[in-house]
């Protein structure tokens, strides 16, 4: 079946630290991959996406590269800010499909 | 450009009561989804509409749950005879058939607390 596995949180970093949140997936077809972010009390916002192998999605200083050989889509940011504190969800949708499958989420705390 | 809107944002109800949530998708989007999210978990798929047709329902959607999208625009999700286990955030999302990569866009969610 199709599934997404993320590293467990919470992840606690100091401001300006480097961030990596690991995400691996299992898919029966050719998925599109996504990172969504959820701030407290709010819905999910699309952060970035990649639709094919070796694509790099980027937004607001965050990046993730679609690695087919390792079935991974790790989220990185070079220098985090307090305002990046949120829950981050890795997700996939199979090409031609409609159901988006989410990981359990990774909570990030950034300290000033 | 308006996003996906949901109403109400918060609902507290007594066990056994019925509740209804409304979702207005992005206007040009013909696909609409309902997800449920509990604390510490990712969203779980409940159901999917393409235009007015409900094309898939998750086994999570018991007989007490019903969703409609009568004119292919807004959608409602009704929960009958609510139980405490129904307490969660109900998320609506929409997408366009023409959207590459199947990106879905979420609303702010409707929090349900059953007491």
Distance between the termini of chain A: 41 Å
- Most extensive interface between two protein chains, with residue counts: A-B, 24 and 27 residues
- Give the number of DSSP strands of chain B: 11
How big is the Rg of chain B?
Answer: 13 Å
Stretches with pLDDT under 50, minimum 5 residues of chain A: none
Distance between the termini of chain B: 37 Å
Listing every helix as H and every strand as E from the N terminus to the C terminus, the arrangement of chain A reads: EEEEEEEEEEEE
Mean pLDDT level of chain A: 94
Number of strands of chain A: 12
Assembly type of the shown chains? heterodimer
Main β sheet profile of chain A? 6 strands, mixed
Percent of sequence in beta strands of chain A: over 45%
List low-pLDDT spans of chain B: none
Characterize the structure shown.
By secondary structure, chain A is mainly β. Chain A has no helices and twelve strands. Chain A is globular, with a radius of gyration of 13 Å. In chain A, 38% of the residues are buried. The mean pLDDT of chain A is 94. Chain B is mostly beta strands. Chain B contains no helices and eleven strands. Chain B has strands at residues 5-7, 10-13, 19-24, 31-37, 44-50, 53-57, 65-68, 75-79, 88-95, 105-106, 110-114. In chain B, a hairpin with a 6-residue loop joins strand 4 and strand 5 (44-50). The mean pLDDT of chain B is 92. Classes of the chains: A mainly beta (112), B mainly beta (115).
């Amino acid at each position: 079946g199709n599934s997404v596995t993320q590293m467990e949180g919470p992840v606690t970093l100091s401001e300006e630290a480097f961030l990596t949140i690991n995400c691996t997936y299992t898919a029966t077809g050719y998925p599109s991959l996504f990172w969504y972010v959820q701030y407290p009390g709010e819905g999910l916002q699309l952060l970035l996406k990649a639709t094919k192998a070796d694509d790099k999605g980027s937004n607001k200083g965050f990046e993730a590269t679609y690695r087919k050989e390792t079935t991974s889509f790790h989220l990185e940011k070079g220098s985090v800010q307090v305002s990046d504190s949120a829950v981050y969800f890795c997700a996939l949708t199979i090409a031609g499909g409609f159901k988006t499958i989410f990981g359990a989420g990774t909570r990030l705390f950034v300290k000033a | 450009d308006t996003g996906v809107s949901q109403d109400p944002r918060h609902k507290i109800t007594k066990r056994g009561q019925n509740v209804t949530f409304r979702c207005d998708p992005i206007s040009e989007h013909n696909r609409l989804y309902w997800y449920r999210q509990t604390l510490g978990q990712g969203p779980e798929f409940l159901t999917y509409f393409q235009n007015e047709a409900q094309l898939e329902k998750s086994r999570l959607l018991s007989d007490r749950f019903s969703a409609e999208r009568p004119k292919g625009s807004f959608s409602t999700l009704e929960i009958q005879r609510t139980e405490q286990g129904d307490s969660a955030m109900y998320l609506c999302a929409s997408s366009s058939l023409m959207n590459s990569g199947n990106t879905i866009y979420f609303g702010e969610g409707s929090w349900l607390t059953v007491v």
